[in-house]
Amino acid sequence: MHMIKGTNMNLSFDAEVIFSDAEFLVNDVDKVGIVGVNGAGKTTLFKLLLGEKTLDSGSIYFSKKRIGYLPQEIIIEDEEMTVLEFLQEGRPIKKTEEKLASIYEALVTATGEEQTKLLKKMGYLQDLLESYDCYNAENFLFSIIESMTIDVDLLDHRIKDLSGGQKSAIAFAKMLYSNPDILLLDEPTNHLDAGTKEYVISYLKNYKGNVLIISHDIEFVNSIVNKIMFVDKVTHKILMYEGNYFTYQKKFAEAQRNRDLLISRQEKEIADLSEFVQRAKQASITNHGLKRMGLERAAILEKRKKELLTRIQTFKRIKMRITPFREGGNIPLSVEKLEFNYPGQPALYNDLTFKLKGKERFLVVGENGVGKSTLLKLIMGILKPISGEITFHQKTDVAYYAQELEQLDVSKTIWDNVQNGAYLDFQVRAILSNFLFYDLDINKSVEVLSPGEKARVALCKVIMQKANLLVLDEPTNHLDPETQKIIGGNFNQFEGTIIVVSHNPTFVEQIGISRMLILPTGRIENYSRELLEYYYDINNDGKEEY
Q1: CB of 10 closer than 8 Å to CB of 56
Q2: In degrees rounded to 5, what are phi and psi of residue 530?
Q3: Hey, what CATH topology would domain 333-542 get?
Q4: pTM
Q5: Contact (Cβ atoms closer than 8 angstroms) between residue 434 and residue 320
Q6: N or C end of the chain: smaller count of CB under 10 Å?
Q7: Rounded CA gap, 180 and 131, in Å?
Q8: Which CATH superfamily is domain 1-65+181-315 in?
Q9: Where in the chain is the domain with CATH 3.40.50.300?
Q10: pLDDT tens digits for 218-275?
Q11: What is the DSSP letter of 17?
Q12: Residue 12: partners with Cβ closer than 8 Å, 6 or more residues away
């Protein structure tokens, strides 16, 4: 039986305890959703499994060790590679064959210990080639490409020319193609459209190996997992629950009620013992019986204090209040006959024309790669159109939330990233605390933050600009459901205009969309739930249905 097992795991970073005698067991083909508040140690657990971090003590055992990892932030080091070259790295068949050939050549003259090492390495490479299923590998790769609706025309494109959604899709495709024994997925649905997500769900449900998922997409998690792993930030333990996320919630809530009742009984017993011990201390020195009983109860009291369970902590949530500095115009933004294409690429839009109405919520929809994020970058002046005009009303103040958080300077601290000269230091500290950055946190480099923390910094920066036009590109990526709900409610109440790209239909519904721009055609429709679901559910087998 294959398994992943953690035993007596202890890990601390400086004074911060992450795991304390934690244990877990994942059997055979278990598919596990990993939950816990921010900072509990979910991503740290992945880094331990990947060998990027080591325990202070304890162990993690694998019966099989080929791991496929999809990180929350997709970083591709060589963006000059073509998409096909990148995908083929998932099964480096040619490189492995070349290594085997060099071993065969070396074995001719090798003897003794050197020969033993070469034979061992040869066996490993032969097993690896067998796992690559060389004769069927290419067909399998192209079936993944087709199923994930990756346009075959993209295969010759350089990775640097892709959108964030396209990069996520090809990173996912490469991981699936690599055919590992264990899949570690950290927020895997960020940037994926509905059609691609459906394929991924189907693939993972039928995957003959272990799948461990960290995700705030509860619907996605529930579609796949048979167990939930809860990483407890208070006790620093790991608890396993059979069933999906909703089953876990019920079991956890019931266990929490029972735990609270037990703690209340423990606290009452401690209070009663403390009162008795205090009375015994104050009793007359000649009252030997009471003094003796006081000493006995004092010993029991110390034991009960050590046995006292810790109450589950209620962690703070972010607070937001979005207030424009001034009211904008009736037409805050006009786009006239816009044309744009990347060098050597076909046009993304021709004669794209629309106007935003003051205080409306305007949604941009379309498949990955049709130019949704590009349009927002054109509006922000990050890119320049081939032709056409983008015009702001003289009263329009703009703030931008970028999909890949490019508006943050990762070399600077949290404090330096949000400063804009309009606030006193104590006001900046107060606002940062609303985004859960306290005291010394504000001096951390953005580079060391988790994706969720970076997203909170970016949100904070947007809020502090007091703009009346918000340009938002996937603002709910990296954020937990509770925070998504909070920002959705705040954007709904915002006294300004919003243009947004989002794959999150719950968030889109919450903020109150009025109209939808459909790319690549440029058609504009009044919002309806049915229309939203249609465009989110498009699979199209790689074709347009506009």
Answers
A1: yes
A2: -65, -40
A3: Rossmann fold (3.40.50)
A4: 0.67
A5: yes
A6: N
A7: 9
A8: P-loop containing nucleotide triphosphate hydrolases (3.40.50.300)
A9: 1-65+181-315, 333-542
A10: 888 999 999 999 998 888 999 999 999 889 888 888 877 887 888 888 888 888 888 8
A11: E
A12: 18, 56
